[in-house]
Write a structure and sequence with these properties.
The chain is α/β, with parallel strands linked by helices. It contains 11 helices and 18 strands. Strands 3, 5, 6, 9, 10, 17 and 18 form a 7-stranded mixed β-sheet that branches. Strands 13-12-11-14-15-16 form a 6-stranded parallel β-sheet, with helices on both faces. Strand 1 (about 1-5) and strand 2 form a beta hairpin. Helix 4 (about 165-175) crosses helix 5 and helix 4 (about 165-175) packs across helix 10.
Length: about 350
């Protein structure tokens, strides 16, 4: 048996309970978790913004050590340290054929599988976002693990699996920030702080962090923000005032709310670029009129998983970490046990802190 955080139904509170994991079958590995980050996507599963089969064990940003392997897992072996990849590409669909592996049509197919059972009553459990990282141990497809980078503590490496790949990719792959450009990052949570660091690495001349909480200013500035704006109805005007009345070259929206997306777009200069990372609900409708789309010539783009190929980008991020350019520890504002996940969700809803990290 292993302890895990189970979402019994959409809208229901998490249950920290014992589950029974099978031994890994063909193409599967069993992993002992070292740490798992608490991401807003997990919260989006609890409230139904994102819909996947339940009951499920949540958690998708994690790292750990391989305990055992089934047949057909290649070179994987017990003792290997790995980072979980919650969105493995199939290599066969149209998106994969175009090299856009982050849009793989089959990336979340594994979430429909029954991978474990509740110990108390045998209830079938699904692996939320494929990897079920909110557990002491998990069983995943071999495609869902990547070698953990050498020289980086395994608990810190967990953050590479989602927050850092997403924030870094939004800046480098989607927005393609160039040296000397100005950037605004909306939302200074785990992904937003990673995006701020990525903008600094990209050589941005100025980085404006925007958040509802004044308490996050120190975190944002430590990550590389040169300016900090408390979100309000005047945010776009404030950002233009900080940039010679022009607006920033690039805005990265990490919140997923219609008003924030619209504000991010309005904060860019004529011809500017806005990348939307935040996951919003279907009720979040963003509107534009035809004339302003023509006049401003701005670009608005969605961004899935930072438009990253984890196998390609993880070594790049590791080099930044080892060189001291990327500080994983600066993203973490609390280290908690499994029982602390509900409180971490509450803090997230209240706009408090950066990344909460479950350590085992």
């Amino acid at each position: 048996m292993t302890r895990a955080a189970v979402l019994p139904a959409v809208g229901a509170p998490l249950e920290i309970t014992e589950i029974d994991l099978p031994e890994p079958g063909p193409g599967q590995v069993r992993v002992r978790l070292a740490a798992a980050g608490v991401c807003h996507s997990d919260l989006s599963l609890t409230d139904g913004t994102m819909r996947l089969p339940v009951p499920a064990v949540l958690g998708h940003e994690g790292a750990g050590t391989v305990l055992s392997v089934g047949p057909g897992t290649g070179d994987l072996a017990p003792g290997d340290e790995v980072v979980l990849n919650w969105a493995p590409s199939c290599g066969r669909c149209h998106a994969c054929s175009l090299g856009e592996v982050w849009l793989c049509a089959n990336a979340l197919a594994g979430a429909a599988n029954v991978y474990a059972h509740r110990s108390s009553d045998g209830t079938d459990l699904h692996p939320g976002l494929n990897v079920a990282a909110f557990a002491e141990e998990t069983v995943v497809d071999a495609a869902c693990v990547l070698p953990a980078p050498a020289g980086i503590p395994l608990a810190d490496a967990a953050l590479l699996g989602c927050a850092v790949l997403t924030g870094y990719g939004a800046v480098h792959h989607s927005a393609q920030v160039r040296p000397g450009e100005t950037v605004a990052v909306f939302g200074a949570g785990g992904v937003g702080l990673a995006a701020i660091q990525a903008a600094r690495i990209a050589g941005a001349a100025a980085i404006v962090a925007v958040d509802v909480s004044a308490e996050k200013e120190a975190l944002a500035r430590e990550a590389g923000a040169t300016e900090y704006v408390i979100a309000s109805e005047n945010t776009a005007r404030e950002i233009r005032g900080l940039t010679g009345k022009q607006g920033v070259d690039v805005a990265v929206e990490c919140v997923g709310r219609a008003v924030t997306i619209r504000t991010a777009w309005e904060s860019t200069r004529r011809g500017g670029r806005t990348t939307v990372v935040g996951i919003g609900g279907k009720d979040q409708q963003v509107t534009f009129n035809a004339l302003e789309i023509f006049h401003w010539g701005r670009t608005l783009a969605g961004c899935v998983y930072g438009n990253c190929d984890p196998a390609r980008d993880l070594p790049v991020l590791a080099d930044h970490v080892r060189a001291g350019r990327l500080d994983l520890g600066a993203l973490v504002t609390e280290r908690i046990a499994l029982d602390g996940i509900p409180s971490a969700f509450e803090n997230m809803l209240a706009g408090k802190g950066g990344r909460a990290l479950v350590t085992f």
